[in-house]
Amino acid sequence: MQPKEPRQARRVVVCGARRRRQGIGDFILHWLTCHGAQVTGIVGSSEQTVRDACTHFLEQGIACRGYTRLEEAIASEKPGLVVIATPYSLHKEHLTIASDYARHCLCEKPLWWDNSGRYVSETSALVKRFSEQHLWLSPVTQWPYTLPTFYRLYPHLRQAAVEKFSMSLTPTSQGPEMVLDAAPHVISMLHQLVGCGEVHTPLCLYRKSDLSDMELSFTFRHRQGLTAVVCRFCNCDVRPRPAAYSINGSLAERIIALPGYEMQLKSASLAIPLEDPLSLLVSDVLSRLSLWEESGEGGFPGDVLVNGMAALGPLFEAAQLAVNGHPSAPILFADR
After folding, report:
1. pLDDT tens for residues 79-131?
2. 3-class SS of residue 313
3. For residue 245, which of 188, 310, 196 has the smallest C-alpha distance?
4. Which domains does the chain have, with CATH numbers?
5. Spatial contact of 200 and 219, defined as CB atoms under 8 Å apart
6. How many CA atoms lie within 13 A of 28 on its CB side?
7. How far apart are CA 89 and CA 152, in angstroms?
8. 42 membership: H or E segment, kind and range
9. CB-based contacts of 15: which residues, under 8 Å, 6+ apart?
10. Among 192, 225, 233, which Cα is nearest to 315's?
């Protein structure tokens, strides 16, 4: 383990701040700055991409230094928080470095992935590394921050048992990778609505032969009972990308108006302005992180991180089985 460098709580280093493909590091950096954090360094894959990113952010009035190695960025900038918005295949490496240097972390979903199948054991070990050093670790799963607005659309559902939940998202990936891109959002909503649970009887159906349109269904067993879940992940390069979810059959669509990127959550009869949930997440993390450092209260629960990865595993496996034409998923394509 590396020697611990001193850190400054409101200083931030962002890994993957300018990912070109489905990355939100740029947006996270923007909201960090808006909410009073000081992004002093960014980490990229090459010197050229780092230079381009630094120029891009300087044009927005954000001056930061660029690095190609996270270790160097931490040693030079001494941040309190490291944001990981790199491809998920790099997450575990960057999380390990951050914990080695005793830095708090906000990590894009999924928390990590390497197809090893050790979803629970590896995540438990990772959570332990952070908790033993009293370090903050949380994922970038912003959709639960839309729920207060949803309950303004459907106030009668606020205290109702969640018997059915569905969500439609539009990742730019295809095939099983759509599960890694989108299912963590579904799981985070379930955690907020019903708590931790287990995935049972997952079934995946691809609606197009290019694997760009997926329906994924499963039962989520939790302390309150059972919730039937249906996910629709459809490849889409259009921005802003459409998204929606429903609770017990009551649908809410996220509407984004350009060029100002104003958001609404809309039912069949009513639309309510929606504050950007990523902004709400970043603000909440910064506030809770300050409380965590001062009093040791308000940390993100490690069991939720472990349960999230435990739930993601069988969903990804179901998507793989459908591709391979496994007997449990005999209908592979349903073009229409």
Report:
1. 999 999 999 999 999 999 999 999 999 999 999 998 888 889 999 999 999 99
2. helix
3. 188
4. 8-140 (3.40.50.720), 143-276+313-323 (3.30.360)
5. yes
6. 32
7. 38
8. strand 38-43
9. 25, 42, 43, 70, 82, 83, 84, 85, 86, 90, 94
10. 233
Question: Sign of torsion, CA 28 237 114 73?
Answer: negative
**By CB neighbour count within 10 A (0-12 exposed, 13-18 middle, 19+ buried), where does 116 fall?**
exposed
pLDDT, tens digit (0-9, with 9 covering 90-100), for 92-104:
999 999 999 999 9
Could you tell me how many residues make up the chain?
336
DSSP three-state, residue 40? strand
The contacts of residue 261 (CB under 8 Å, 6+ apart) are: 240, 276
Coil/strand/helix, residue 128: helix
Q: Which helix (H) or strand (E) holds 70?
A: helix 70-77
Q: Say how far apart CA 138 and CA 36 lie, in whole Å.
A: 19
Coil, strand or helix at 73: helix
Q: Check: CB of residue 204 under 8 Å from CB of residue 214.
A: yes
Query: How far from the centroid of its chain's Cα atoms is residue 141's Cα?
Result: 4
> Which element (helix H / strand E) includes 165?
strand 164-169
Six-digit token pair at 22? 């489905």
- The amino acid that residue 135 corresponds to is L
User: By CB neighbour count within 10 A (0-12 exposed, 13-18 middle, 19+ buried), where does 336 fall?
Assistant: exposed
What tokens appear for 272 in the block? Answer: 């309510």
| Residue 39 one-letter amino acid | V
Residues 14 and 43: beta-carbon distance below 8 Å: yes
DSSP states of 178-206 as a string?
Answer: HHHHHHHHHHHHHHHHH-SEEEEEEEEEE
Q: What is the pLDDT of residue 297?
A: 84
- Is the distance from CB of 40 to CB of 79 less than 8 angstroms? yes
- Which DSSP letter does residue 268 get? S
Do the Cβ atoms of 67 and 50 come closer than 8 Å?
yes
Residue 66 in 3-state DSSP?
strand
